[in-house]
Design goal:
By secondary structure, the chain is of the alpha/beta class. The chain is built from seven helices and seven strands, in the order ααβαβαβαβαβαββ. Pfam families: TylF.
Length: 217
């Protein structure tokens, strides 16, 4: 793992992807690539692309032929629903040009970028097979739409990491600012589903890992 790069990216993007989050992403994605799980790598909710840069570097180091697809409205968040808190419409806005500039700064190949709301872009542009997905949609509807489009395309053995999934019973240190994320996952998979694995850390890491069982289609 490129530790120095992770430290630098975390310093530039501390509020969204600290070092612990980047480390977790590394181990999840590198495992999928190491075991040759077929399919593309996708990120849903890429913002300015600093976490995307980390994904791209892992791909370049381990399997540079893999495609990286990024999805973002580039208009900030949609209006929150009844289950959404903390953030509001238009928050977390970034421009596509920021993503492209960050990839150029780190001298990485430009990813395939899909601008627009998830419910419009994912049905047509989501890769047919996915090895790894990072879901960072923040709100209930965004995560639900992400799961509906990504999980059926996830290859057996593939992994989804869901940011902001907080289960305080399993991980009392987790940040619980976006409860709609957990509600969407629990609604899609069922409360207490064995597919939802809480990931803990020394800080306020709030992640769920979803692994598609081998043999599932």
């Amino acid at each position: 793992m490129r530790v120095r790069m992770a430290i630098q990216l975390a310093a530039e993007n501390e509020k969204m992807s600290d070092f612990e989050r980047l480390t977790t992403i590394y181990w999840a994605l590198s495992g999928a690539l190491h075991y040759r799980v077929p399919g593309a790598v996708v990120e849903l909710g890429c913002n300015a692309g600093l976490t995307s840069v980390w994904l791209a570097q892992i791909i370049q180091d381990l399997d540079p032929a893999r495609e990286l697809h990024l999805f973002d409205s580039f208009e900030g968040l949609p209006a929150p629903g009844e289950l959404d808190t903390y953030l509001d419409k238009g928050d977390c806005s970034a421009a596509r040009s920021e993503v492209e500039a960050n990839f150029a700064t780190w001298k990485l190949p430009q990813p395939r970028i899909h601008p627009g709301w998830f419910d419009r872009t994912l049905p047509e542009s989501c890769p047919p097979q996915i090895a790894f997905a990072y879901l960072d949609g923040d709100f209930y509807d965004s995560i639900m739409t992400s799961l509906e489009n990504v999980y059926p395309r996830l290859a057996p053995g593939g992994v989804i990491l869901v940011d902001d999934y907080c289960d305080l019973d399993a991980n009392p240190r987790a940040w619980n600012g976006l409860p709609g994320v957990k509600k969407a996952c629990d609604t899609y998979f069922g409360v207490g589903s064995p597919l939802l694995e809480v990931v803990g850390g020394t800080g306020d890491l709030s992640f769920a890992a979803i692994r598609k069982p081998l043999g599932d289609e």
